[in-house]
Amino acid sequence: MKNKRYDILSPDGFSIFFDKTFKTKEDAMTNFFEWKKRYEQQGYYSSNNGRVALNELEQHCKLIEVD
Length: 67
Prior knowledge:
Helix content is 24%, strand content 27%. By secondary structure, the protein is of the alpha+beta class. It has 2 helices and 4 strands. The strands form 2 sheets. Strands 1-4 form a two-stranded antiparallel ribbon. Strands 2-3 form a two-stranded antiparallel sheet.
């Protein structure tokens, strides 16, 4: 039996970590908040559907379970 792994999808539906997955939801979210810091200087995340305010970014991303 394979252990569950977790990933986070961007507002555009792509993994924000590329080939990296996480053992726990908590670990994935910790890494999400670190990833989000990359956008602090510009003040928003730029998606294909327009700008996403950083305080709304978590609601536009999706935590998923992967095999």
